Amino acid sequence: MTRRENILLLATCDSVPLADKIALELHIECTPMVRRHFADGETYHAFPRDVSGLDIVIVSSTHTDGALLELLDLIAGGRYWNARSVNVIIPYLGYSTMERAKPESGEIPKGVTRTRLIFRTRPDYVAFLDLHSEAVLHAHSGEVKTRHLWTEELAAQKIRDMNLSDYLLVSPDYGFSKRVARVAGILGCPHTAANKDRYDIDKTIINQLSSAVKDKTAIICDDMIRTGGSMLQTADRCYEAGAADVMFMATHLILSGDARERFKAKGVKRIIGADTYPGTKTDDLLEVYSVAPIIAKELIHYLRIV
Fold first, then answer.
1. For 137-147, how does the pLDDT look when each residue is reduced to its tens digit (9 = 90+)?
2. Which residue range forms the structural domain that includes residue 53?
3. What is the DSSP string of 201-250?
């Protein structure tokens, strides 16, 4: 059993807002790290208290190189100062779409190599949310306990809250269709998938879609939205196949570059997703739900918090 007073909940700089929500769920505090910046750009970190014998929990999305490096520093620091355990929650894993390299390409599969860096700092436990590929879970030699947490129940509840009468879920490609099928199973609604081909970095083409969407509200679901190209093309195919309306849902709302403007230009009024990507919050386009309850529930179970 782990008593709440023995837990030190920390976060890398950009993940503090989500960590604060997790702290509320656990009825503890998210403790701020001591951070200062030297004139040459180097960053000073210090734990705000003695961590020896404590169970450290670090919340950190690795959406930037700086966030990854800060996470590595905090894990290594916890080990250096003899924490009883160092546990990591990664709501969004950067480079997660680069989990394998084409033969003879010289590509670096950074999803795996960077996750391996995290494992090599020797955390006791690392949990990920809605991974693009589970290949990264195996980028260690068995020394680290890993968990893949799914947000399907939260996504399904958000759809239920819309009170839609005639809808189905749509995957932009066959690779993601199993995940969409699981959400559809929770909701008891039909689902289908589009046919997607990738022909360059950040460039895809959606070729065709089933007529199952005819006269229905098509909810296009994916694990993340980066540029939005695949989802917007899928929306076009849905309308061509007779869909009455189209909505969008994804866990990780990255929306890089001009993605927001592209969705708005198509007349999209709402995109639903989670707060896994730092800075994501509800606004005139996004409807954001928090993954804090799922993470808190997992920590209570894993750490056996009393």
1. 888 877 899 99
2. 4-150+293-303
3. TTEEEE----GGGTTSEEEEEEEEESS-HHHHHHHHHHHHTT-SEEEEEE
